Amino acid sequence: MSAEQRVRRPLSADSPARRPLSAGSRVLAPFSRRAARVLERRVYGAYVVLRCADPDGPRPRAGQFYMLAARRWGGGDGERPFLPRAFSVLRSGADHERAFLIEDVGPGTHRLCELQAGEDLLLVGPLGLGFGAPEDARRPLLVGGGVGIAPLAIWQDELGGASALVGFRDAPRAEGARLLADARVATDDGSVGHRGLVTDLLREELDGDAHATVYACGPPAMLESVRVLCAARETPAQLALESGMACGFGACFGCVVPTRRGYIRLCVDGPVVDAAELETAMVAGMGH
Ligand SMILES: Cc1cc2nc3c(=O)[nH]c(=O)nc-3n(C[C@H](O)[C@H](O)[C@H](O)COP(=O)(O)OP(=O)(O)OC[C@H]3O[C@@H](n4cnc5c(N)ncnc54)[C@H](O)[C@@H]3O)c2cc1C
Ligand code: FES
User: Fold this and answer.
1) What are the C-alpha distances in Å from 29 to residues 58, 147, 199?
2) Can you name the CATH fold of 28-127?
3) Which stretches in the chain have pLDDT values below 50?
4) What is the pLDDT of residue 150?
5) How high is the pLDDT of residue 30?
6) How remote is the CA of residue 68 from the centroid of ligand 1, in Å?
7) Best residue among 51, 67, 87 to mutate for probing ligand 1, ranked by most atoms within 8 Å of CB
């Protein structure tokens, strides 16, 4: 039986370095939707990065997200996309510049990926609770899968550097690794870096030195594997989860996920959640 099968208990409540940001440190979004001019559209393999100017918005914290839409929204098959879509902030630069990483997987992301410099990105945000700093002299260790690398890029910037492990399906998606500094890469098909899962790399890292705080974002199966690996070694982990979000600010209850202390609305009590709060990160309805 492996270490991670043996130890599935949560970290104790007073374990250090396990807490995402508290509600008191939330950066609040201005109430209404605003237009942010797209400054640059750049393609990274299978992904599009939109850099925009948001002069009227506050600076986001790493791990927070925005609800995004564009002009000419709706009117596709079944009038979709109807609602705005949730995106982690990828980067926050000087002069109120923000960047978002988008994978074209449906009508909303397709429309956003079409945007060109000079057009408007319509946004509400920053929303939700982001990552909390490591404590107890633990080293930050970032683990991302697919578009889940987005909140880790801004977190790496804010931390002033951190080891990063990133996993992708194939080479076009692995182009996204360029958005993080010095990332170790895994691909499912072995076309770039380690052939296999990013959690293989995480296991190796933690077996070398488990005195870390792990920050992870990616598909549910990856996050569940991260949760189990970390729990087995008493390594604190903060997981940026996803669920379908209709409003993004607590009104619709469309984003609820179960935790050990009951259901939470991921848009206001997350998206970053302490791994010790979860029975499982395999939340129904999450992930691509
Ligand atoms: C907090 C948060 C942060 C996110 N950050 C990013 C990001 O940085 N970059 C990015 O590309 N995407 C991100 N997403 C996912 C993004 O919101 C969805 O891909 C998008 O809503 C899909 O809209 P669509 O109209 O293009 O496709 P849809 O037709 O709505 O969906 C297309 C496919 O994606 C799946 N899907 C839809 N919504 C979600 C979701 N919320 N989570 C997982 N799978 C979904 C559907 O099941 C379907 O298979 C984030 C989601 C959340 C909740
Ligand atoms: S998305 Fe509406 S309550 Fe969370």
Assistant:
1) 7, 23, 34
2) Elongation Factor Tu (Ef-tu); domain 3 (2.40.30)
3) 1-18, 288
4) 98
5) 76
6) 11
7) 87
The CATH number of the domain covering residues in 3-20+130-277 = 3.40.50.80
Domain residue limits, the chain: 3-20+130-277, 28-127
Q: What is this structure's pTM?
A: 0.92
Three-state DSSP at 267 gives helix
Q: Is the CB of 81 under 6 A from ligand 1?
A: yes
What is the predicted pLDDT for the residue at 2? 47
Question: pLDDT at position 288, please?
Answer: 40
Residues 6+ apart with CB under 8 A from 24: none
Alpha-carbon distance of 266 to 270, in angstroms, equals 4
CA 79 to centroid of ligand 1, rounded, Å:
18
CB of 124 closer than 6 A to ligand 2? no
3-state class (DSSP) for residue 18? coil
Do the strands 194-195 and 183-187 form a parallel or antiparallel pair, or are they unpaired?
A: parallel
